[in-house]
Inverse folding.
């Protein structure tokens, strides 16, 4: 077993002073949960086939379910179509995503937020629309929506009020398990961007992000061990372990939220 595999318990042991993460409470399954799970898996397979391979039969299957009122299928069809280069098709994708979001599909609202935050081949960036859809996705309970609201607010880093809003969103997202939010908080307190520099707090957030295998956070820990910094004593050995862990995390990098 490599040293990288044993990294997680080591990191967790360093987090005794960290803010505890929010505990998720599992909901009781519905009586038809197996059926719902099978349908969700089938919809996801169709989405992958339609998106990656331009499988029109898979797309038509999604649209059939979407027209029957299945919001997951509407979201999947909308996600696929909104990535197309033909503007009329991409706008049709937006309409399916909006239909799902209005029906209460939180993931569709988050997807719409992403569409307008980053743009698509035929859809322009629109930050006000992105913000509105992320806000609709219940960011107090949805870590991804909270994270992106923080990203949007942080674009105005010269505005103290906007930075304060960003930190609030990042803390919500971090405590809901979003490692990118943990890493951003580490940067905020390490660099003193919009907040008083606080090396100890920065290191705690880096440690939490590193425990979730965030490569850049692991790099910060490696550098801290190399120079001896804040909560961590100087240790060439530990620095080497962390660099190995960083390589492992990069090989198995998780996509952005």
């Amino acid at each position: 077993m490599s040293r990288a595999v044993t990294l997680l318990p080591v990191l967790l042991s360093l987090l005794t002073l960290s803010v505890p993460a929010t505990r998720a409470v599992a909901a009781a399954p519905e009586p038809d949960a197996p059926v719902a799970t099978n349908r969700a898996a089938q919809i996801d397979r169709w989405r992958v086939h339609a998106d990656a391979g331009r499988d029109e039969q898979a797309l038509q299957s999604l649209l059939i379910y979407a027209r029957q009122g299945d919001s997951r299928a509407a979201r999947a069809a909308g996600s696929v179509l909104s990535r197309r280069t033909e503007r009329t098709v991409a706008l049709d994708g937006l309409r399916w995503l909006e239909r799902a979001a209005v029906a209460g599909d939180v993931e569709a609202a988050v997807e719409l937020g992403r569409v307008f935050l980053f743009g698509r081949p035929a859809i322009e960036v629109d930050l006000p629309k992105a913000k509105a859809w992320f806000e609709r996705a219940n960011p107090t309970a949805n870590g991804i929506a909270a994270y992106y609201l923080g990203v949007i607010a942080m674009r105005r880093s010269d505005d103290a009020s906007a930075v304060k809003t960003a930190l609030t969103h990042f803390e919500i997202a971090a405590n809901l398990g979003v490692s990118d939010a943990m890493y951003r908080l580490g940067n905020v307190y390490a660099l003193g961007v919009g907040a008083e520099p606080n090396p100890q707090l920065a290191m705690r957030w880096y440690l939490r992000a590193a425990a979730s295998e965030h490569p850049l956070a692991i790099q910060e820990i490696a550098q801290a061990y190399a120079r001896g910094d804040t909560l961590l004593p100087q240790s060439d050995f530990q620095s080497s372990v962390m660099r190995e862990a960083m390589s492992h995390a990069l090989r198995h990098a998780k996509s952005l939220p």
In short: Confidence is low (pLDDT under 50) at residues 1-10, 15-33. Residues 33-52 form the longest helix (20 residues).
